[in-house]
Amino acid sequence: MAELNGLAREAQRQQWLLQALRGDATPQALQTWLRGAPMQQQLGLQAYRANAAASARRALALAYPTVQQLLGDEAFTRLALAHWQAWPPRCGDLAAWSEALPGVLAAAEPLAAEPYLADVARLDWALHQAALAADDDAPLSGVLLLTQADPAALQLRLRAGHAVLVSAHPVHSIWLAHQSSADNRFANARQALADQRAEAVRVRRNGHQAVADGIDRLTAGFEAGLLQGQPLASALAQAGPAFDFEAWFIDTLRRDSLAAVVQAQTSLRRSDI
Known about the structure:
Shape: globular
Structural class: mainly alpha
Radius of gyration: 23 Å
Number of strands: 5
Number of helices: 12
Order of helices and strands: HHHHHHHEEHHEEHHHE
Mean pLDDT: 84
Distance between the termini: 42 Å
Oligomer: single chain
Helix content: 40-55%
Strand content: 5-15%
Low-confidence stretches: 267-273
Strand order of the largest sheet: 2-3-4
């Protein structure tokens, strides 16, 4: 019980600290963790705020490394400070903060000349989330159901951290260019931008590492359906008749990206009402 009370007090203290850093803490809340004379309290709070801003920048850089490279350090630092002020963290875990950044970038008028930036941020965030996903290395289960049940009665569950992004911009080419140190690493991305190439990307775990694969739109549509929890038949219909399920299935097994085949969740049966 004492340990639980201690955890509750620490959680409350962190909430008060976050309120103080945002500037909306009451004087009574400040007194719970600031000590000394008023001047000392203000100096301490300024130090906390400066440290929090630096921590926010580091957290944003970890979540959005490609965006950081595209903007440059100075512009990215300004973005981090503005984002921290407009969208302050609501919990002590900064790794879970900044999910809203892609939407902020999409709505930012000064960045209208770089419309791909928001989707690059979405890709960065998906990779960040995949890297933080819980380990999902249990053996594949339920494969025999594919030979025994109607596809309308089955769901295919992909491994934790799996995500799909379909963009009107060459986000995968841009991301790849920033993973390389070759002299001509930006050539393909520049050509893709000039060609206004649309690209789809799959994000997945490869062991403990998050990776991004360029995929075609049919595959993206199919996997998006699976991630939405659609039955196999519905996901196949969404992908269209040109989608090669057999080739996808073999490749997915090779990558160990399929977690399970299960009976589809259906609406309430008459007997359940």
